[in-house]
Each structure stands twice: as structure tokens, then as C-alpha cells.
Amino acid sequence: MDDKLNEKYTQAIWELTDALQEENQMESALANCLGIMTDVLDCEGGFVWLLDNDSDSVVIITCTTGMDMTGLSIPKNQGIIGRVISTAESIVMNGKIPADSPLSGTVETLGLAFNSQMVTPLNTPGGQPFGCIQMFNKKNGKKFGKEDRRLAGNMSALVALDIDDKGFKFPLQKKRDPIISLRGITKEFLSGENILRVLKGIDLDIYQGEFLVILGESGCGKSTLMNIIGGMDPMTDGTITLDGKDFSKPTQKELTEFRRDYIGFIFQSYNLMPNLSALENLKFIAEISNDPVSPEKALEQVGLSEYADHFTSQMSGGQQQRVSIARAITKNPKLILADEPTAALDYDTSIEVLDIVEEIVRNQNKTVIMITHNPEIAKMADRVVKLRGGLISSIRINMNPLHARELTW
């Protein structure tokens, strides 16, 4: 190995070690490690598979690819993944796998074109595999080599040791049908004489009763994606399925009913009517909703019953945000969209707001999608989607989400 490549690989090992040490939530550490491996090995993407002994299957818990593969499972003896799980040895495949090969199953299941791939096991200290890391398609048509295999093996060994050391357990998620499915979503804007492509092909499924967090830097397309999901902004291209039905080109009437009955919004800037009391803000929403929750009950749920007659303009930021959440509850929607709801709040007030959001998801079985720039908040979520440059860069499952009051920043 030349000195330049050796330095690159050594740096990657240090970055991976830091990622494991700094994270107190294993799923987040795994996602960070997979991202490091994808970058240093110059791959199109990768997956972390974990073995669920109760179902004799392996499940994707995090991926670095634009397709939402989290939760996908295959029998533990299927394809190239099954071979690695059964032998505890890594496999490198350069070139397409023949259809009649016993290693072809994984490719068929994922529906991806794998021109090259490398799978390394995650072994216990005793050498028993409990999962594996799969990298696919070296960029520019390159092949996986001996040094790639050595580096991936070292990285996988570090990840496996950390998982074992922290006593990490994997509870298998039940298979569910999505309430909303996005496929190939693009969004373009005119910018002078140029076309600005903000979203470049988003595939994402959203499930009933889940807390989904979308992370990303400013300008990556988070708010645009949320506006499309919420019916506030039309997509340029792609398909949207709502409760199993095509909702790609809704009529104005269908769109109005969707926003009125299906979606609740929590805004960073609250968007309350300042000349109305807290209760009046909620009653206004209740009057135009199809199956509302009692405004008084909604205020009670956010701990503001005694402030029912106070004008929202006279309330603190945290109180206004709780009124905003109560307004979303009042609509009794199937899906709540929250756009940076804690961005303008201090830590203690943020935790109070997130505590209410947690209650809505865990005890009321509502689906919440939250945009945030704060990766600590993502540790509460069931799944975390990272956007980069208008594309999904990674998705991970949080198998043991933290409670709001366990978060620190």
C-alpha cells in the first residue's frame, strides 16, 4: 500500500473509532460508521444488517443509499448475506452475480444493480456472526481490492467489539404498511434564467405511529420535502401514494381536504393569531375540522388549561409553541409535520415541547415528521433520514429511542 493510501485508511480508522466513542446511542454510531466506510472506500452506498434470532432473519437497520431500505429483512441463509452470516468470513464480489448463483438472492431482494460488492461480518468476540456490513459499487467502475477488504474487516471488527461492549440488543420491528409512500420525488425552482433542482429523487415510506426525524444542513431540501408531504407545495415529478391510493395529482378539492383533515402543522414561528386567546385559536381550527378533539382537552394535554383565556401575544415562546402543538392535536390529524419546533427555544423549554411530542407519538399513535438541525433530537426518533444536496444520504432505525428528558446538548 502506498503512503498516501495508508494515511487515508489510517485516518478513516481514527474517525470510526471517534464515532463509536462519542455516541451513546449505538444506532447513531452505526450510521456514522457506515457513512465513513462509504466515503473512504469510495462506494455508491452500503447497509448494516443485524441478525434477529427469533425470526431467523437479517434486517437492514441503516443504509447509505437514496432508497429507503430500513426494516427490509431476508432469511439468514439467503444470498451473499447468508453466506457471510453462516461462515463468519468476508466476501468480495467484483462483477455481476449470475442469476443461478446461491449468492444472488440479496441482489434480487434489494432490487439494486450491484456491479461490485463487499460484505464483512460483525462477529462476537467468540467469532459468532450477529450481522454484517455490506458495501456496494465502487465508483468509477473500480473493483474492491485486497486493501479494501483489509480495511473493511478492521472497521467491522471495531464496530462489532463496540456493540458487544455496550451490550447492544436488537428488537426486530414488525412489518407495517406505509400510510404515505414517496417515489422519485423531484422539485425544481426557477432562479433567474436557471433551474434550481432542490430535490433530486426522493424515495421514502412513512408509517402510522412512527416518529421520523429529517436531518440536514440548510439548503439540503428538508423544508421543501416537508411542504410536498404536507400538500403545501407541488412536486415537479414523482409519485405519492396515500393510504394505498395514488395521490400524485390531487384535485384542488382533494388537496384542501387532505390539508384540513389529514395533516397537522407545528411551525417554528408558531403562526398563531395574536388577537385571539389560546382557546380561541384552537376553537377556530376545531370549527373547520372534520373530527376535532375538544380544544379544552387539547390545551389540557399540553399543560395550558389555566392559560386558556390568555392572548397568545402575551405568552412566552415555549407557551406559544405548546399552543401550536395543541392546535395540531385539535385537528385530530393522522400525520403531524413539525418544522424546527424547538429552534427558537432554550434547552429546558425545548425538552418540555419534545416531551409533549413524545406523548403524541407513543400514547396517541400519531405519526410525527420533524425537521431539525439538532442531531441530539434525532435520538428520540424511530427512524432518522439525512438529506444532502437534495438526496437521501442515509436512513437509520433507532432500535431503542431515547426519551426527551434523556437528551442533552
Low-confidence stretches: none
> Level of helix content?
25-40%
Beta fraction: 25-35%
> What spatial form do the alpha-carbon principal axes imply?
elongated
What is the overall pLDDT average? 87
Number of strands: 16
Supply Rg.
23 Å
Secondary structural class: alpha+beta
Instruction: Give the ordered list of helices and strands.
Output: HHEEEHEHEEHEEEHEEHEHHHEHEEE
Instruction: State the helix count.
Output: 11
Sheet with the most strands, sense and barrel status: 12 strands, mixed
Q: In angstroms, what separates the terminal alpha carbons?
A: 41 Å
Question: Can I get a quick summary?
Answer:
This protein is an alpha+beta fold and 409 residues long. The chain is built from eleven helices and 16 strands.
Q: Which features would summarize this protein structure in a list?
A:
four-stranded antiparallel β-sheet; twelve-stranded mixed β-sheet; alpha+beta; 409 residues; 16 strands; 11 helices
Give an overview in words.
Helix content is 34%, strand content 27%. Helix 1 (3-22) runs parallel beside helix 5 (146-165), helix 8 crosses helix 9 and helix 10 (317-330) runs parallel beside helix 11. The chain has helices at 3-22, 26-40, 79-87, 105-110, 146-165, 222-229, 252-261, 278-288, 295-301, 317-330, 347-364, and strands spanning 43-52, 57-63, 73-75, 91-94, 116-123, 129-138, 178-191, 194-207, 211-215, 237-242, 245-246, 263-266, 335-339, 367-371, 383-388, 391-397. Strand 5 (116-123) and strand 6 (129-138) form a beta hairpin. The chain is elongated and about 70 Å long. The protein has 409 residues and is of the alpha+beta class. Strands 1, 2, 3, 4, 5, 6, 9, 12, 13, 14, 15 and 16 form a twelve-stranded mixed β-sheet that branches. Strands 8-7-10-11 form a four-stranded antiparallel β-sheet, covered by helices on one side. The protein contains eleven helices and 16 strands.
